[in-house]
Amino acid sequence: MSREMRKNDFDIAIIGGGPAGSTAAIHISRAGLKVCLFEKKTFPREVLCGEFLSAEVIESLKKLNLYNKFLLLNPNRINSFRFINEDSSELETKFQFEAYSMKRSVLDNFLLNEAKKSGAKIFQPAEVKEIEKQGASFRLNILNGQGCNEEISSDFVIAAYGKQNILDKKLDRGFTNERSHLNGIKFHIDKKYLSLFPEDEIQIYASQGIYCGVNSVSESEVTLCFLEDRNNYSDSARSHLVSLMDRNDKFADIFNKDFLYVINEIQVYGTGNIFFGRKELVEDGIFMIGDAAGVIAPLAGDGIGMAMETAELLAGILISGSQNKLKPKILERQYVSDWKGHFKKRLFSAGIVQKLILTNNLRKAGIGLVNIFPTILPKIVQLTRG
Question: Where are the domains of the chain?
Fold first, then answer.
């Protein structure tokens, strides 16, 4: 196929069309800046995610004036959280905030369409293959869905591409050489394979080196999303799900007898080597948002919320910077400072809780302590919130 080069100029280029990228595009486009967004997959598409929409997501939607439109998508309301250990001990708390669950394919498609309506130029499917700094601007080399190259220039670049991207290695981001041995896996399960499951509750089931969240995401499906420590496992993701059923009786109880006959047919969505440590927030002048800036432990159920909040935070800084003609270095310092103030404590708290949950003795001790002092659990939940 012939290759062609075309030149387009934008104020801001965004890489990634998930909640972070689309939210940033909506805010910035509405402010009158010229925005382009690159998404390498065709929507709707599924990605690894527990698909829990926290209070932070709802607040972000309200700020975008999209809350009422969101409700028309018929999201599933979640009112409580239950944690079930392999020894059948449980913890339960009611949420003191508004929360929902929804398939990512639905949410992402909704937000990206709103970005289009806001005036952002969407390139999809299109993959950013290279970013080069040229004076005060950036040049992006794009491979589009027709196999043609396009060259885009922009004043600023926002990376909103999720947990992992080939650009991380090209930017020589330090964490790309780290090995976390932590894998995330998601399944969508037809409800006909489940016994009675509470529609308004998110449940977490745990055993050594693994925990799995279960919540209803539509009238016909639930999401099973688990994090596993690969130091303790070497088999397939489906076999780990069966292993958790063997070790956690209450987890096994949510499935009916037909489930094991179809488990090998279920689509697997996964990401390996998930890094929960520190990431640089600005790399070679490129602003990182969402999971590209920092991954919160899935147990917190706040990944989408943080993605949308970081997008809103950076959008405000870039809009103000454009209006006041501030230098990029000033904007970079402001973003790093504000991001740490908003998210550093939340990430740290969620990381500590995750370590406790993945370790048998610590998990059992924690459950015992919370059962003695039940007011601790709502406070732990609050520590991982915005």
Answer: 7-74+102-178+275-359+379-383
Confirm if 190 and 251 have CB atoms less than 8 A apart.
no
CA-based nearest residue to 289, from 179, 184, 157: 157
Q: Record the pTM.
A: 0.91
Calculate what percentage of the chain has a pLDDT beyond 70: 92
Distance CA 236, CA 24 (A): 37
Span 307-344, pLDDT tens digits: 999 999 999 999 999 999 999 999 999 999 999 999 99
Beta pairing, strands 76-84 & 90-101: antiparallel
Going from the C-alpha of 353 to that of each of 141, 294, 370, the distances in angstroms are 41, 16, 13
Mean pLDDT of 151-171: 91
Q: Are 385 and 56 in contact (CB under 8 A)?
A: yes
pLDDT of residue 365: 74
d(CA 101, CA 201): 10
- The gap from C-alpha 115 to its chain's centroid, in whole angstroms, comes to 18
Regarding the domain with residue range 7-74+102-178+275-359+379-383, which homologous superfamily does it belong to in the CATH classification? Answer: FAD/NAD(P)-binding domain (3.50.50.60)
Instruction: Quote the tokens at residue 341.
Output: 């103030």
Write the DSSP symbol of residue 194: B
Assign 268 to helix, strand or coil: coil
